[in-house]
Design goal:
By secondary structure, the chain is α+β, with helices and mostly antiparallel strands. It has 3 helices and 4 strands. It has a 4-stranded antiparallel beta sheet, with helices on one face.
C-alpha cells in the first residue's frame, strides 16, 4: 500500500509596509470634542448634581459634560471649560430634592484668587443625567 504525503507548503513572505495611507472612510475627530468618559449610573437626582460638581472640582470636565453639562451649558465644550478657569473648587452648601427628578442646590465656588461666589439653582435630572437647570449667582 502506497501512502501519499503532501509536500509542505513554504510560508509566504510579506514585506513590511510603511504607515497605512488613510482612506476616505477614516474618521476625523474634532479637536474641540471632549474625550469620551464613561457615565456613572446614578440613581437619584441629588447624587447626579453632587457628582457633576465633584467632577468640575476634580477638573474632570469630560465626565461632568457627559453627566449633563452638555445639556445645561448653553455653549460649546471649550467655552464651558474656559468658564471654570478661575474656579478652584465647588462645594455644595445645601441640596434638597423635591420630586423624583428635581433638585434645589446652593453652591459655593472658591476662586483661584481666594474669593467666594455663591450660586443657587434648580436642576432637573432624567435617566441619570442633568437635562435642565436654572442657576443664578447670589453673591
Amino acid at each position: 500500500m502506497t501512502r501519499t504525503v503532501p509536500a509542505p507548503v513554504p510560508p509566504t513572505a510579506t514585506t513590511p509596509t510603511a504607515d497605512p495611507t488613510p482612506t476616505a472612510t477614516t474618521a476625523v475627530v474634532p479637536k474641540t470634542a471632549p474625550p469620551a468618559a464613561p457615565r456613572p449610573h446614578l440613581t437619584n437626582a441629588s447624587a447626579v448634581v453632587s457628582q457633576y460638581y465633584q467632577d468640575i472640582t476634580d477638573h474632570n470636565y469630560a465626565a461632568a459634560w457627559a453627566l449633563g453639562g452638555s445639556n445645561i451649558a448653553g455653549t460649546t465644550y471649550d467655552r464651558w471649560v474656559a468658564g471654570f478657569a478661575t474656579t478652584q473648587s465647588i462645594t455644595l452648601g445645601t441640596i434638597s430634592e423635591f420630586g423624583a427628578s428635581r433638585v434645589h442646590a446652593v453652591l459655593y465656588a472658591t476662586q483661584t484668587d481666594g474669593t467666594l461666589k455663591t450660586y443657587a439653582g434648580n436642576y432637573t435630572v432624567a435617566d441619570g443625567v442633568l437635562v435642565g437647570a436654572s442657576i443664578r449667582q447670589t453673591s
